[in-house]
Write a structure and sequence with these properties.
By secondary structure, this protein is mostly beta strands. The protein is about 10% helix and about 35% strand. It has one domain: Hexapeptide repeat proteins (UDP N-Acetylglucosamine Acyltransferase, domain 1, 3 Solenoid).
């Protein structure tokens, strides 16, 4: 089996990656992005891009499909335990805990996918939508206050990881060799 050693992550030096996160392959983390405890980003078949100031919370799984990457915009919060697979999430979205977004789905900017929702393959949603259910559908437009809460969530997680660093929590550094998945 290919060891994917030629598919190295590209990580901005000003990011937070928890030491037990797994990042493999063509993963791009922009400035201010954070990947939290036990999250897995596996870009062995296509690329994963995590936009500036976005956070991938504990126990999330982000994967790709052959020739179909996963693209997360700026200021996005991906809640604990979410599964994001070969899809696109626009800027300033909040993906609730345990939500599943499947291949080819598109979540437009300033939207919220409710916790536990399942977004079917190929489904697209308009900007500023509250998306929920299984299968997920648009329930209503988000209010300006709800969109602002999406943005606040991303800003809050940036403050969290900056505090972790101030208090000496061990994290991966962009120059470390351990950024790739741990060897057995």
């Amino acid at each position: 089996m290919d060891n994917f050693s030629y598919l190295k992550p590209e990580v901005h030096p000003n990011t937070f990656i928890a030491q037990d996160a797994t990042i493999l392959g063509r993963v791009f983390l922009e400035e201010g992005a954070s990947v939290w405890f036990k999250a897995v980003l596996r870009a062995d078949l296509a690329e994963i891009k995590i936009g500036a100031n976005s956070n991938v919370q504990d126990n999330c799984l982000i994967h790709v499909e052959t020739g179909q990457g996963t693209f997360i915009g700026q200021g996005v919060t991906i809640g604990h335990g979410a599964i994001i697979h070969a899809c696109e999430v626009g800027d300033n979205c909040l993906i609730g805990m345990g939500a599943i977004i499947l291949d080819g789905a598109r979540i437009a900017r300033n939207s919220l996918v409710a916790a536990g929702s399942v977004v079917p393959p190929g489904k697209s949603f308009p900007e500023g939508s509250l998306i929920m259910g299984s299968p997920a559908s648009v329930r209503r437009p988000l209010t300006p206050e709800e969109i602002e809460r999406n943005k606040q969530s991303a800003r809050r997680y940036r403050r969290y990881w900056e505090a972790y660093l101030r208090h000496g929590v061990q994290v991966y550094k962009s120059g470390d060799n351990i950024i790739l998945a741990k060897k057995p």
